[in-house]
Amino acid sequence: MTETTAETPQLGQFGVWRHAGGLAPEVGAAIESAGYGAIWIGGSPPADLDVAERLLDATSTITVATGIVNIWTAPADEIATSFHRLEARHPGRFLLGIGVGHPEQPGLNYSKPYAALVEYLDALDAAGVPAGRRVLAALGPKVLELSAARAAGAHPYLTTPQHTREARELLGPGPVITPEQKVVLDTDPERARPIGRSAVENPYLHLRNYVNNLKRLGYTDEQIANGGSDDLIDALAAHGDTQYVAGRLREHLDAGADHVAIQVLPAGVDPVPALRELAGALGL
């Protein structure tokens, strides 16, 4: 059996976040060839992690991460088995992102999510999944601190550079912080902003965890209501030409992020042309 390395995989400064359904192996290969350092699999992939295995098989060096596995739907023992399978086939290239999702998830007993997350981490420890090979979906201070104590760091979703800065101040220089940032490569706000609003408003502006985090960042009920104010949407889904969007992505790095996971919108469109354009502006 291949010995599992506890060292956190290399991510580079920029990666790509995309729903599992839009990550065919050829898309993963194109992301790698464009120079990105990581592929983040969104949409709560199942415990078999087959989508991660297909991406790893189709690429050679890029890190593949989950953004994120949901602890309520992917049992820890099954995830650990899948982790070790991937590690044996592709040593050191898989990063396990896990999280508690949101209380509005149907059909789940969402009681005591923090305690459930700690128990899940305990089970991963017992199954030999190293802390350095996992990150936590973390927004608020309590889970951010847990991400530093029990994982390599945090993978915040739907955040701003202000959140990144506050997370870095809380955690100090050691833990990795890898925020997701939505982007629309379009210089016309009348076209771009509705694309961003569609991706942000439904479901995230109706989910308690995300709404509470936006309020911690200073956004008001009025800014969050009715699909989100223009300034809120523009903060969460940057739009403009490639140079402007690249500058917005670098704001997270300037605020203390180690890596930014880029989600190109709209979700149903082939992201590869936009990602290649961005790669040039980012110097990849």
UniProtKB/TrEMBL annotation:
<protein>
    <recommendedName>
        <fullName>Luciferase-like domain-containing protein</fullName>
    </recommendedName>
</protein>
<feature type="domain" description="Luciferase-like">
    <location>
        <begin position="26"/>
        <end position="259"/>
    </location>
</feature>
<dbReference type="InterPro" id="IPR019922">
    <property type="entry name" value="Lucif-like_OxRdatse_MSMEG_4141"/>
</dbReference>
<dbReference type="Pfam" id="PF00296">
    <property type="entry name" value="Bac_luciferase"/>
</dbReference>
<dbReference type="GO" id="GO:0005829">
    <property type="term" value="C:cytosol"/>
</dbReference>
<dbReference type="InterPro" id="IPR011251">
    <property type="entry name" value="Luciferase-like_dom"/>
</dbReference>
<dbReference type="InterPro" id="IPR036661">
    <property type="entry name" value="Luciferase-like_sf"/>
</dbReference>
<dbReference type="InterPro" id="IPR050766">
    <property type="entry name" value="Bact_Lucif_Oxidored"/>
</dbReference>
<dbReference type="GO" id="GO:0016705">
    <property type="term" value="F:oxidoreductase activity, acting on paired donors, with incorporation or reduction of molecular oxygen"/>
</dbReference>
